[in-house]
Amino acid sequence: MKKISIVIPVKNEQNVIENVVLGLVEVLLENNILYEIIVVDDYSVDNTKQILQKLAAEDKNIKVIDNYLRPGFGYAIKVGLENYSGDYVVIYMGDGSDDPKDIVKYYKKLEEGYDCVFGSRFMKGSKVVGYPVIKLIFNRLGNWLISLLFNIKYNDVSNAFKAYKREVIESIKPFVSNYFNITVEIPLKAIIRKYKYAVIPINWYGRTSGVSKFKLKELQRKYLFSILYVWLEKILLKDEVKKND
To answer: What is the pLDDT of residues 138-174, one digit of tens each?
Structure first.
């Protein structure tokens, strides 16, 4: 059986992280999926780390790692992607916004032979609850720009919650994005290298506790950088980008 690694970057999520991790474990065990959960603590100053250490002591498949790079979502993702051992890897949010049952769908698609599985919150069969209106507008504009530049129909590239085979992640390193913009760099690098991906509907739930670390105004230029960086790689280095046909 293939093992799936779930990388969860967290910062100050003491109110929800236990339920997030235990909810994942419950679903994975119910479906007999071999797993490891790697939670990367991104310089939390509340009780997040203590809660995680307790969970790790009770389940050997839960690992807690400090972000040993600089503070930031992207740095925490990089740490997780340097320390997982599974055949497959999923990036999962620690704020309770992702549905653990969707990981089972991801796993089954990877088992079918896909190299990546991308969820969409904006297609038939998906469910979105409590998405902030302003953030939604910028999300749709940003994903429209990505679709135009890369000539793809996938409409939720910026969502972090995605799954990859190990060989995909290893082939697209290193990552240059250090914040939430890493969520567009990773899938776009896989797409331009012609990896086979499936798109499925997923559920998303707005946070009910804690404070969002997503700062829209600060991140706009970072997202634009990552999009243009991969686009230029596609255009200018097309002969050097690995083909996976």
So the answer is: 899 999 999 999 999 999 999 999 999 999 999 999 9
How many other C-beta atoms can be found within 10 angstroms of the C-beta atom of residue 206?
14
Cβ burial of 1 (10 Å; 0-12, 13-18, 19+) is: exposed
Each as own residue / partner, the long-range contacts of residues 54-61 (CB below 8 Å, 24 or more positions apart, any chain) are 55/18, 55/21, 55/22, 59/25, 61/25, 61/35, 61/36, 61/37
Residue 187 near residue 157 (C-beta atoms within 8 A): yes
Q: pLDDT tens-digit profile of 97-148?
A: 999 999 999 999 999 999 999 999 999 999 999 988 988 998 999 999 999 9
Q: Report the alpha-carbon distance of residue 74 to residue 178 in Å, rounded.
A: 4
Q: State both tokens at 97.
A: 């916004």
Looking at residue 6, its amino acid is I
Q: What is the 3 state secondary structure string of 52-118?
A: HHHHHHHCCCEEEEECCCCCCHHHHHHHHHCCCCCCEEEECCCCCCECHHHHHHHHHHHHCCCCEEE
pTM exceeds 0.85 for this model: yes
SS3 label, residue 160 = coil
